[in-house]
Amino acid sequence: MEEAIQSTSEGTHQRNIEIVVEQENDGDESTVKLQRTLTVFDGIMINVGIMIGTGIFISPKGVVAGVESVGATLCVWVAAGVITLLGALCYAELGTTIPASGGTYTYIQVIFGDFAGFINFWADTVIVSPSSNAVVALMFSIYCLEPFYPDPDCPPPKVAIKLFAVLSISFAMFVNCWSVKLTTLLQNTLSICKLIPLCILIISGIVKMGMGSTANFKQPFASTDISGMGTALYSCLFAYDGWQSLNVVTEELKNPSRNLPAALVISISMVAFVYTLINVAYFTALSPSELVNSDAVAFTYAQQVLGKYAVIIPVTVVLSTFGCLNGSILSSSREFFVGARIGHLPHFLATIGIRHKTPLPCIILNSIITIIWCFVDNVFTIINFFGFVQWFFFGAAVIGMVYLRFKEPNRPRPFKVIVVMAGGINRSNSGDSLGEPPSPSSYDYDINRG
Q1: How is the chain split into domains, by residue range?
Q2: Domain 58-438 architecture
Q3: pTM for the model
């Protein structure tokens, strides 16, 4: 590893920048370091694959329950997409101004100092990221096992669900350890495969609208409940979780000053477009009350519209969850790597495999912590609580971006956003106006039973 990785007496904010400069300017091919192998397409697919996980199958019910009308529901979905896009633009500036891996952790540590970075690092790497990854693995396990337990009175055993989740995490760990190229190939394939069924749902909705199924769009704001707007918005933002994941692997992205902003904007715009149109499609067949009463909105819609081909929905959930898991392990393991490189974890963890050029110890440690979380019964409660902590640090990073403009006005900024946009995303992160996020356990299966 480069000398910049060793501990020095300089401030940690300087060490981060020196690491990146060393990695970009060192022309010695024999140096073992993370390789810039990710293209802009890979970046788009990583973000899309992580965002489209379980959220889009959970959140629609919470949004409609919050605002109650069709028009307000669609407006909330559009608003959540705009808020997420504003956040991505701010992170595009942060990622090109501080071109180091680590995402929010790196930005907090560089701008506000070592202690703030340390708190963010441990909250994210020990609790938020691995617990969220564990839930995704458990959802993947449930949908893989349910076909073998068709009797609703005899669900898959709790032990079987958790062991299959461990198997899925282990497989994703192996792929991530083997090579970044194999990981991104799998991620790209899964992202494309999950988009195809979602597009089928969208097209079916457009066809139904063309056939006259527009009753739910007449007087779309008639029964709007403004008081539930905060809860509805939080449900939508839950579906966009992972929008900042590409910033965690900045050092592996080719030409990040150009490709990072492009990948963030394209991926989030694509997901926002898909999410909004899917909800439009739902309302061509389901009324707001029917949607709220459904335990699996996408499957209920597909049964009415696609008939026997509704089987694509469970398949889509399987693809979505494993794609989300694979991409999340890719990004979260890099946060471990950056923390070990700075000194918030033992330095020996900041080592890279000579053959495969992947941070093997960090991938393995991240996966082990995720596996441990699979056996924690109250994981959903913990995720809901620490979700607020995660959004708090998102807001702090955006504030830090504005502060850095005044603190270091001469720092190179290949990409800049209007400061008003930063104010908008920070206001949306205020916890005062947000309700509880949707719990994945309320979708259609309780992992703690069986």
Answers
A1: 58-438
A2: Up-down Bundle (1.20)
A3: 0.82
